[in-house]
């Protein structure tokens, strides 16, 4: 077995929150608000439902194949060749999404803070630090995350609390202004993000009590949904739909707008620390999934030898992004469709149907 | 061997940890405190920047001793676009411009009349200027505001920002200005700033002259339609506007008591809110505006008892009437003279009648001009300060 660590359900929940939330909170609000305007919260609610359905698929598979990751049970379900093909696709997707997350991670400092510093500096730093955690194993990654996530979410909540005097509830009215089509369109991007809960299939086997997997999945999807909705609505209440849709990083701009009594202001340094803390965790989860998946795909006893080469591949892939315009177009437009149809719903659905038809795995699973 | 390698690596890393990349030493940057935009005679953009001289800020308090050290420097660049003008300034300012501390954005009158949408984009897109800076329009040239001198503050840009923050007039942050530029249901406003003779410098001070002192003051509201300045409101009209916006806290309202010579009373608003209720009846639009304000009595001119419950009730009626008159006058004036919906009637209508709004927003200007506006104010007097009646009242 490549991974010997065990993590508690709480750690797993926080890890799953960090798998989805960090980039979602920065990249999802503008695109949802552009499509659904002040009805963005409805789009997000729809996306949470999609996220819960994906979570349901993952839970079913994990309970059916206890102590097995996606890579292991796909071979059991589809046979060796089919399983390897699915595994290869997921290795690609983890690497691709990992590279996307690294580019996202670098985008905020590069665009908003340190324009003279090239992207590659943030790429290398991000990969090196999270690679160090990945090398330490799932337990190390989880403990790091357990340490930073509560502090990070607390700080962001506090900053939004300080913004309440700038908020006006009228900015959310009228409700249902744009129509059902726009709201549905708005839900595509957040649904793609929430579907990343599928990575739980790489972590679930190492839960100290795997029966808890359902609670972990549902709680993390709901928590992420609540946080993204709160950030989006909070930003809408400060800026209104036109301006929220125009900012590159509306949540960051909202944090910049805090002015309390002429001295409590310029809090964006706090937001940037949060971004770095959580961004590293998110890179770590995808990095870990790619490394562990590759090791299991190759049948290696230890995955640590793959950490450095995978880091180099991630760096190379991240460097392929030619401009921030391409990054936003892909992350907010193409990625949700690509991720949702194939990796978050398509393959898991196929796997659970085939498993049921062929009667593989424990019948206790849904 | 391994230990030595680690020590070497750490030593190497330490060399890179000096924080030298993207660093900005205070001695190498020029801190922009205020920005002014004027139209040049040939129709290009003139960008005036008030730049701090950090040396003059040391020590706090007055720059005592009559050294005549001026705390700032104003430079101007021109270009087809703002970024061109800023790039041109790089040849005049020997340091890197740092925009993050600029507290006020001033549009010159001509620039504002031509339209500010395109130049507002620059400040939203640029990473350093804050969303929270104040937006003002200068009567005349913006550079005049930056070039004048403040007696109490270090620089005129800071003085202008403090005036907007502390004063009782219109105060609009950059993000609010841009939001109302984008919003179809409300037109933008900004603080009006004028350079006038304000006060007297009694002995040779920093300005070096005895006598009347010219400096910037806030003098009302700049009214936009779309991104173009269409006119001004003076300070009395601005108060009417603030009642309608629900932002009139601190305003002082004076009423005359009927039948009493010199029987005036002054009240200060301590809480205030406004609600616009649109009604659509048979194709015609009506707005009921409900104003609510709580006042403290702050000054009594006439002799008599105005602090009893009955008298307070009388004052409340007078105050409500005064609020209605002020708010109604400004609505009529802005509608007839400027045709601009700075009050957000369109937004209020949109919130209640979203389907009708999407059909009417193309001809909203006409609908707004035709709409009936009914203003209904309620005033409450909460306290009378440390006195109940004026002390001489007992002799009456």
> Runs of chain B with pLDDT <50, length 5+?
61-67
In whole angstroms, the N-to-C terminal distance of chain A is 26 Å
Count of helical regions of chain A: 12
Q: In terms of structural class, how would the helical and strand content of chain A be classed?
A: mainly alpha
Helix percentage range of chain A: over 70%
Summarize the structure.
With 366 residues, chain A is mainly α. Chain A has helices at 9-36, 40-64, 70-113, 119-136, 138-162, 180-194, 200-203, 213-246, 250-256, 268-298, 307-319, 324-358; strands at residues 259-260, 264-265. A two-stranded antiparallel sheet of chain A has the order 1-2.
Provide structural commentary.
The complex is a heterodimer of chains A (366) and B (396). Chain A has 366 residues and is mainly α. In chain A, 76% of the residues lie in helices and 1% in strands. In chain A, strands 1-2 form a two-stranded antiparallel sheet. Chain A is globular. Chain B folds into 2 domains: 209 residues, no CATH class; 162 residues, GMP Synthetase, Chain A, domain 3 (2-Layer Sandwich), CATH 3.30.300.210. Chain B has 396 residues and is of the alpha/beta class. At the A-B interface, helix 3 and helix 8 of A face helix 7 and helix 10 of B.
